[in-house]
Write a structure and sequence with these properties.
Blueprint: H1 23-35, E1 58-61, H2 89-98, E2 104-106, H3 119-127, E3 132-137, H4 144-153, E4 157-161, H5 167-174, H6 179-196, E5 202-209, H7 217-226, E6 231-236, H8 262-278, E7 281-284, H9 290-293, H10 308-311, E8 312-315, E9 320-322, H11 327-330, E10 340-341, H12 347-351, H13 354-363
Parallel strand pairs: 1-2, 1-8, 2-3, 3-4, 4-5, 5-6, 6-7
Antiparallel strand pairs: 8-9, 9-10
Length: 381
């Protein structure tokens, strides 16, 4: 058994139930299952058309494309995808106001949302409209003041991308050595939540599934438990056929998907066992379980299960409309999958405009858009 992380008992032992999960983790599991509706569209592929009959249920708003880390799995480390920017407040509010019945908004993209000074104000703007709000963070800026502001604003979910259970591995993946600071920040944040009696936001730790890091998983679960986090997620790596740099870990040989060894599966099973013992929810991106998320599922049309272009819109900090948050990681540049400009046209004009219709038509054929060809193989739908 790996011993990369010293095991420290959490401040409060969570109450458990018949499922083996803590009460908080059980609530997270139930909410995760409810969230499936944001990734699924009623009806079979044969019932879909190029025109979306309903409004999107979810918006991804890239509050910033700036970042203070240099992750070796992220394309922005190796090229400037768009000019650096924070999404202007006026653009942000206008996008929300165009779809007042939107159910869910995600405030991240290619960047670190907590670099945006008014991020809590943006959360409050959404919560005042009864919208479910979440974002991923690297945790470097999760200090007491920022944490309190997010709790008071009503943030529903805070996902911390940590990717390792110890400092050296963290630096290899994330590019800078902020591991101890992030762990301390998250521990202090969950402690603050207990002090305030604040069940929201749900806090989770995320690890990108790499051959180089899968051995971290058992201690990653222990680490989460020791700092008061009740949810852990294994995220499948998205990679380019042609890596952007020799230093990039976004490459086929680092991916676990479809060619995981027995030792690597054993690490995942060990992490699952430890999670059950500690009452931690151990899950995977795409509302699936960790083992299933990397199991071979090759088909002739792996993209066919995707319903994102019928259910959500992604808008970059500069107003460019993309089909989903995965596209920037699937191929270089934005040109081939840009569907509109939200600074020039309304979201309703873009949603069923010519570019969106052409994109959806491709997904319904044997010749999908280039960004989607391997989606479903490289990502958990």
């Amino acid at each position: 058994m790996s011993s990369l992380f010293p095991i420290v008992a959490p401040a409060i032992k969570p109450e458990s139930n018949d499922s083996g999960l803590s009460a908080a983790a059980q609530a997270a599991e139930e909410e995760k299952n409810r969230m499936r509706r944001y990734f699924q569209k009623p009806g079979s592929q044969s019932e879909l058309s190029a025109v979306a009959e309903q409004e999107p249920v979810c918006l991804y708003l890239e509050t910033t494309n700036r970042c203070n880390l240099l992750c070796t799995t992220c394309p922005r480390t190796y090229e400037q995808l768009e000019p650096e920017a924070d999404m202007p407040w006026e653009l942000f509010t206008s996008l929300i106001d165009q779809y007042p019945r939107i159910a869910r908004v995600v405030l991240h993209g290619i960047g670190e949302p907590m670099l945006v000074k008014d991020i809590a104000q943006r959360v409050r703007y959404l919560k005042d409209r009864n919208i479910y709000v979440l974002f991923n963070t690297n945790g470097t800026l999760l200090n007491d003041a920022n944490g309190r502001a997010l709790i008071e604003a009503g943030l529903d979910e805070l996902r911390v991308s940590l990717d390792a259970a110890e400092s050296a591995m963290f630096q290899m993946v994330r590019g800078k050595d902020f591991f101890d600071r992030i762990v301390s920040n998250v521990r202090n944040f969950t402690h603050l939540q207990r002090e305030l009696g604040a069940p929201r936001p749900r806090v989770s730790l995320w690890l990108t599934g790499l051959r180089e890091t899968v051995s971290q998983l058992p201690n990653f679960v222990r680490l989460a438990h020791s700092i008061g986090v009740t949810e852990v997620y294994l995220q499948r790596l998205v990679f380019f056929d042609d890596p952007m740099s020799e230093q990039s870990l976004a490459r086929a040989e680092s991916a676990l998907f479809e060619h995981t060894s027995e030792d690597e599966h054993a690490m995942i099973r060990e992490a699952e066992t430890i999670a059950r013992e500690l009452g931690v929810l151990f899950s995977a991106s795409g509302a699936t379980d960790p083992g299933e998320s990397i199991r071979m599922q090759r088909t002739d049309n792996p993209w066919s299960l995707c319903r994102r272009p019928w259910s959500l819109m992604y808008i970059t900090a500069n107003g460019r409309v993309l089909p989903c948050c995965i596209a920037p990681f699937s191929m270089k540049g934005y040109g081939s999958f840009t569907l509109g400009d939200a600074t020039q046209h309304s979201l309703r004009e873009i949603w069923n405009g010519p570019a969106y219709q052409q994109f959806r038509e491709g997904l319904l054929t044997s010749s999908p858009p280039p960004a989607c060809v391997n989606c479903g193989l490289r990502w958990s739908l």
